[in-house]
Amino acid sequence: MNWYNAIRPLLFSMNAETAHEFSLDMLGVIERLKLLPHLVPNVADYPVTVAGIEFPNPVGLAAGLDKNGDYIDALASLGFGFIEIGTITPRPQPGNPKPRMFRIPERQAIINRMGFNNRGVDYLVDRVKAARYRGVLGINIGKNFDTPVESAVTDYLICLEKVYQYATYITVNISSPNTPGLRTLQYGDSLRELLQPLKQRQLELAESWGYKPIFVKIAPDMNEEEIGMVAQTLLECEMDGVIATNTTLDREGVQGCEHAGEQGGLSGAPVEDKATEVLETLCKVLDGRMPVIGVGGITTGAGAVEKKKAGADLVQVYSGFIYRGPELVREAVDALSSVR
Question: What's the CATH class of domain 3-337?
């Protein structure tokens, strides 16, 4: 019997955020006792090279699960080809008032309005330095909630400079719906004025620490014209990749469910089609000029394959992992390797 299926009813009997913290703590304990290898399914080798990085397999953990880098070694034992931690901000912040995370089990969905709760970039750097993990590590950066949008570039530069030497790649998060004004950074001159200084600083830091790719994470709530404009700006600013997509403000697929009316971003199975459509449109515009990571609604191996068919070079999971556990990682890698 799948051990995660056995303990999931216990976890799901708790408040969602409490269960999140409890399960990560327990995972950390099991890892320190060196028991995880006996509990996690073997994941096949399927190395892929994207943006100059060799990934052991193309299935990664999306940002948000381990915001502060406290559980890197434990998560690394679950078969992921790469791990992304964060979102991190320059200064610690508590995030939005609780409760702020809600499950919709009948739809394999989650709504959250966490608000970039984290202990600050200095804490995360200390945790990364203490970790034994030497695999592919993405660090997702954002701005503090009280930093004006017009000054956001300062926060992103602070984070970029502090995490650069410790990351395999850096993700610029401009698409969370839970930090006021953040998504306005995705458009027009605002996006260009954010990314150009980051690109310049990346090239300067590369002289000391080697070249580390910068990816940009975008929202699913854009029309075709907006996607095209964002893609063009990413190309102009010579970004190294894009992650499509973050959570959605749309509630299609969860209408009438308990918690469907909660504010925040929706993730999980209901966002799958929307995220894949954005991914496909984006990949057509980019036409192979920039690698793309597909994320949003992957709950099965077949879902990972759909992202690949839409143009994704890599995929990430989050909510599907909450509902399925480590078995999803193995299943997704097996499915992707069968359609090379």
Answer: alpha beta
